[in-house]
TrEMBL record:
Native organism: Flavivirga rizhaonensis
Swiss-Prot/TrEMBL keywords: Cell outer membrane, Membrane, Signal
Signal peptide: 1-27
Protein name: RagB/SusD family nutrient uptake outer membrane protein
GO CC field: cell outer membrane
Keyword flag Kinase: no
InterPro entries in UniProt: SusD-like_N, SusD_RagB_dom, TPR-like_helical_dom_sf
One Pfam family matching this protein: SusD-like_3
Family: Belongs to the SusD family.
RagB/SusD domain span: 365-482
Annotated ranges, domain SusD-like N-terminal: 117-247
Transmembrane recorded as keyword: no
Length: 487
């Protein structure tokens, strides 16, 4: 499938992604499978085919992405593979994990952000392509003859997908929301691109976040709890996305708490229970996982080398390019089930001393995108900001005591309690989402590497290194955007 940036009006070719089915088999409804093409008039004539179209969108999250979209050849790399690649690039930018000089090495050095670089063009194209598919979905449903219930449900899916990817664009290509809400770097599109489309001018960051919040709040109203599998967005996942967005805007902690509770089920002690720790962290059926990539163990991962597993697992055939900062390792008590670090190389080089066995790579390794435990920690942060420190400590302890039988209820308060919550986020989510980078950006904190690292980079709070430049391909194609946007 060939697709171009949404603003490349003269080049954009819409090829609908649909799973071509003869029946709604059990194999299909478990998780997203491969994609094929059908015309739009057929897609939006039948509920089952619309569901197949949505399945195809999720399947693109795991696809390989071409670095040069005009040469007719696929020159993609493992570090531009899909949603996982964007998350792992964020992971590489922190202090807790250390990268060898192979894949993601430029992200690790905070040196992969210029307009013609692979990371920049991939991140822009990937997210805007999915946004366009969401717009195709929303528009196609509005103009279809399907029943109102089907339209409402799948329109909600489209809005949740669109909001999620505009959130990624805002995180990756703009300053922190609360640092510069007027920053105008991101064009907004709510209609499908066509051959006559002209690229829109960039909108203020406030408008981007207003669309994100509006889409999510609307979607949550109409999304069902049931779904075909955990690779699909349902009401709980949409609430989880909303909770993450509100961590950035920091202007509605009550809603952040209620959204997080709706995602994890409002029983923290039950929500955090997981059997994945010590067992490879690769099983989507784990009750802690809300959303993830399903891998069928045959034709999905072999070409895509899904992060984080293939980059962190040193005990099997894999890419083995990620190590653990010894100072981060020392933050875990010996009784913490998450202390899964080994010195397998007996290396005297500090950055190669420890690896993690949190993630086990096989071609059937599922990949976490959102977990209930993260939502419990979001709720704890929300309670802290609502001046309910006792409840914040209780929520924090619900996770801590499940992971560590020797844990005790925190006695911290004020900034010390907030620091403890942030540390717990790092310990719980390392390798998964780029949590260090995300928290540093949204809270206007620096990223300071210690001397254990192979590449020592100190990134000041609110530095331009926290966001990418606008791709040159976009500037060249969009008459409403020029070179000055990157100055």
């Amino acid at each position: 499938m060939k697709i171009y940036n949404t603003s490349k009006s003269t080049k954009f070719l819409l090829v609908l992604m649909v799973v071509f089915l003869s029946s709604c088999s059990k194999e299909f409804i478990d998780e997203p499978q491969n994609t094929a093409g059908l015309p739009e008039s057929i897609v939006f004539s039948d509920r089952e085919i619309v569901q197949s179209f949505i399945t195809g969108i999720y399947a693109r999250y795991k696809g390989q992405w071409d670095d040069d979209l005009t040469d007719g050849e696929n020159t993609s790399d493992p570090d531009t593979g899909g949603l996982y690649a964007m998350y792992f690039a964020r992971t590489a930018k922190g202090n807790d994990l250390i990268l060898a000089p192979t894949f993601y090495r430029f992200d690790y050095a905070h040196d992969n952000r210029l307009p013609t670089f692979r990371r920049t063009s991939f991140t822009w194209t990937f997210n805007y392509e999915i946004i366009n598919y969401a717009n195709v979905l929303i528009n196609g449903l509005a103009n279809s003859s399907l029943d109102d219930a089907t339209k409402k449900e799948f329109t909600a899916v489209g809005k949740a997908i669109r909001a999620f990817h505009y959130f990624q664009i805002a995180l990756e290509f703009a300053p922190n929301y609360n640092t510069d809400r007027t920053s105008s770097r991101i064009p907004i599109y709510t209609e499908p691109a066509t051959g006559s489309s002209v690229g829109n001018p960039p909108s203020p960051l406030t408008d981007v976040y207003n669309l994100i919040l509006s889409d999510l709040k609307s979607a949550i109203q109409d999304l069902p709890e049931e779904r075909l599998g955990k690779s699909y967005i349902n009401k709980a996942v949409a609430n989880g996305i909303l909770a993450r967005v509100l961590l950035v805007t920091q202007d509605d902690w009550e809603l952040a708490s209620s959204a997080a509770k709706a995602a994890y089920g409002d029983n923290a002690a039950m929500a955090v229970v997981s059997s994945n720790w010590g067992n490879g962290f690769n099983e989507l059926s784990d009750q802690d996982w809300l959303w993830g990539h399903f891998q069928n163990g045959t034709n999905e991962t072999s070409a895509f080398w899904m992060a984080p597993h293939v980059f962190t697992d040193h005990l099997t055939t894999s890419l083995k390019n990620t190590y653990i900062n010894t100072n981060f390792r020392d933050e875990f008590s010996d009784t913490d089930v998450r202390k899964l670090f080994q010195d397998i190389y007996n290396s005297t080089t500090p950055y190669r001393e420890f690896v993690t066995t949190k993630f086990t790579f096989t071609f059937a390794s599922d990949v976490p995108l959102m977990r209930k435990s993260e939502m419990v920690l979001i709720d704890a942060e929300a309670q802290y900001n609502l001046n309910n420190e006792s409840e914040a400590r209780n929520l924090l302890f619900a996770l801590q005591k499940d992971r560590d039988p020797g844990a005790t209820l925190s006695t911290n308060s004020g900034s010390d309690l907030m620091d403890e919550i942030l540390l717990e986020r790092r310990k719980e989510l390392y390798g998964e989402l780029g949590v260090e980078w995300f928290d540093a950006k949204r809270l206007s904190m620096p990223i300071n590497r210690d001397t254990v690292h192979r590449v020592i980079v100190n990134v000041p709070a609110d530095s331009e290194l926290f966001y990418l430049t606008i791709p040159q391909s976009e500037i060249d194609a969009n008459p409403n955007m020029d070179e000055s946007i990157n100055q």
